[in-house]
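dumping this here before i forget
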Amino acid sequence: MSYNLLKGKKGIIFGALDENSIAWKTAERVHEEGGTFVLTNAPIAMRMGSINQLAEKTGSEIIPADATSIEDLDNLVQKSMDILGGKIDFVLHSIGMSVNVRKGRAYTDQNYDWTHKGMDVSALSFHKVMQTLYKADAMNEWGSIVALTYMAAQRVFPDYNDMADNKAYLESIARSFGYFFGRDKKVRVNTISQSPTPTTAGQGVKGFDGFIAYAEKMSPLGNATALDCANYTVTLFSDLTRRVTLQNLFNDGGFSNMGVSDAVMEGFMEE
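structure:
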């Protein structure tokens, strides 16, 4: 069901890779709600995915950009404003990568070159994106910037590895830069802490199926899907949430406030 919540709004969506991506689902929902946007991803990621299909489906243009490169981001922001015909109303940062996770290195045995690379891609890129937008005065007043995170930033999930540190840094950047963006530009900045979701990136985490099963049993409403996250993101891009900023917002079926559930306890009870 569509409500025309984003009619006339323009934006940039980072990170759509394939149909499993939260960014992909968000792009589809933004399109259904009347928004227009530019799609962007790193050139290497674009070769792995099927972003061209999404662009055709939503009538969007694609601008390849490495989100860790200021030069690429400057080009992206300027070209996006040219294509969209003016300033931007919304941005989704859906980017995350850990080389240590991909290569199977334990948290207690980090390759620090890989750690720095993951931090740059997963967290510092968010600062770079916002700084580029801020300096270019590219955002309309009451615009909205959203990044995706996970509650391993607050609690220990051993196999989430250095991505937990990256997400903690990401959330801090959202609050700190969100203050300046709100004060100076009336732009809001928030993060969504999503349930474990079977995206291409998420499935690379060791024990991910166990993550999902545990969260499903712990959450009174069950895990939030990629589409659920897309719908929540649409509300944050809309004018209905103009005074919501500097928040880490949990979209996780209630998992974040649970201590234990009956379903989990049953696994420990003797017959």
